[in-house]
Amino acid sequence: MSVTTSTHIEEASKKAIESMYGSNIQDFKVRVYFPYTTDPILDRSNSADSRIDSWDVQVTFLLEENQYTVDLIILKKSGQIIYSRLIDTMIPL
Asked: Where are the domains of the chain?
């Protein structure tokens, strides 16, 4: 599945989070996403836009009364998650 729109980004992110944390997450939100280049040492003759091959996505969700913030790198062409990192876990007020 190609990931090119904000709807695609949200679907791919939610699918990945549910795979990692289970399907009982709540209040899933994409906080922010940015174009990303997985290989910064590409041919410099190409424009910056042509080197962008993925999305850097930050999401939040609730699970068992804790709020999680997770960072994901999603490939544009396939929707494959190539990197994930737990940024923060907190108890919401």
From this structure: 6-37+49-90
